[in-house]
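seq:
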Amino acid sequence: MVIKVYIATSSGSTSVRARIKKQQQDVMGFLAANKIEYEECDIAANEANRKWMRENVPEESRPATGNPLPPQIFNEEKYCGNYEAFFDAREDNAVYAFLGLTAPPGSKEAEAQAKKAQQ
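struct:
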């Protein structure tokens, strides 16, 4: 299973571009720091990536107007969520579950799952 992070190397206005770039760096930095393999899929440089991402973000996860903005995160073909969902999962020590992966032994997430199982 490969985590795919749909990113944009260039995007609209300066303020939007800066926010998207920071969010992309947050996601990819976390994945790299936790040795979670991922693939960057650039929607700015590859029309097929842009089309695929837009078609595969579920209706309930789309903005009210316009198209979904990067970063969008998938586990292979399965939609995981956008930056806000990733951020919430990270705050809750639940990123592996968010990504559809098994938390490694000794991680905060694995310890939290073990405590829940004991209750």
